[in-house]
């Protein structure tokens, strides 16, 4: 194991909070195990660790080790670390992000990976969008499809609107809650920049009630 990652893992495990752990596991329907370190606490602890140990020299290697731990907080921390260097990664890094997306996926990790890591990477390498978007949106994995729908979430007025609408259309008939939610969320986010386009899309398509409600939440 990477020495830096090993020290960090031990550091956080020694500060686990059993009371918070129970609440966090219940919130996530007892699907995953936690240390009981909520985000503000986890970030303070990481700053303390960095003050004593310095910043990681090989962020990707450390993140890989953290993501392999069963406790969910290590995955959040790995994503935080990777987000700080997302603009410095080679093209091949997208395959690693894809691997992370399908590793015990749930909204808590997938949404961060989609909007920050995948979204940031594809801004850096836009020529990769077509192939990966097609693979994800045409596939059967709902979490990769959710990623395709959400990766432009932070693109603001630089959003490829035709792609956004096409991705939503592809999964309009899905009864998957997390797909319906993603469609509504992506449309609501883009409505901040072109409300008329989103309204026209919603009114001309048969969206699931959840998707429609989310898309029009701020109208």
Mind explaining what this structure looks like?
This is DNA alkylation repair protein. Helix 4 packs antiparallel against helix 5 and helix 10 runs antiparallel to helix 11. This protein is mainly α and 219 residues long. The longest helix is centred in the middle third of the chain and has 18 residues. It is globular, with a radius of gyration of 19 Å. It is 66% helix and 0% strand. The protein is built from 13 helices and no strands. The chain folds into two domains: 84 residues, no CATH class; 108 residues, Leucine-rich Repeat Variant.
Q: By helix and strand content, what is the structural category?
A: mainly alpha
DSSP helical segment count: 13
User: Taking all residues together, what is the mean pLDDT?
Assistant: 97
Main sheet attributes: strand count, strand direction, barrel closure: none
- CATH class value of the largest domain: Mainly Alpha
Task: Characterize the overall form.
Answer: globular
Question: What is the CATH architecture annotation of the largest domain?
Answer: Alpha Horseshoe
- Give the strand tally: 0
SSE ordering: HHHHHHHHHHHHH
Domain unit count: 2
Give structural attributes:
13 helices, mainly alpha, 2 domains, globular, Leucine-rich Repeat Variant, 219 residues, 0% strand
């Amino acid at each position: 194991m990477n020495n830096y990652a090993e020290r960090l893992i031990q550091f956080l495990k020694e500060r686990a909070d059993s009371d918070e752990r129970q609440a966090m596991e219940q919130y996530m329907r007892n699907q995953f195990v936690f240390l009981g370190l909520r985000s503000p606490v986890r970030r303070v602890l990481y700053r303390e660790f960095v003050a004593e140990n310095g910043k990681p020299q090989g962020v990707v290697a450390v993140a890989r080790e953290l993501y392999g731990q069963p406790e969910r907080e290590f995955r959040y921390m790995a994503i935080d670390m990777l987000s700080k260097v997302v603009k410095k990664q080679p093209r091949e890094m997208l395959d690693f992000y894809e691997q992370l997306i399908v590793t015990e996926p749930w909204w808590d990790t997938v949404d961060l990976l989609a909007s920050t890591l995948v979204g940031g990477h594809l801004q850096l390498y836009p020529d990769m969008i077509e192939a990966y978007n097609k693979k994800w949106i045409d596939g059967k994995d709902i979490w990769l499809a959710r990623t395709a729908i959400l990766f432009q979430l932070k693109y603001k007025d630089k959003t490829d609107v035709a792609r956004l609408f096409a991705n939503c259309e592809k999964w309009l008939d899905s009864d998957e809650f997390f797909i319906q939610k993603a469609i509504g969320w992506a449309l609501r986010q883009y409505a901040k920049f072109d409300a008329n386009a989103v309204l026209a899309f919603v009114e001309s398509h048969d969206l699931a009630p959840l998707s429609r409600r989310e898309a029009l939440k701020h109208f």
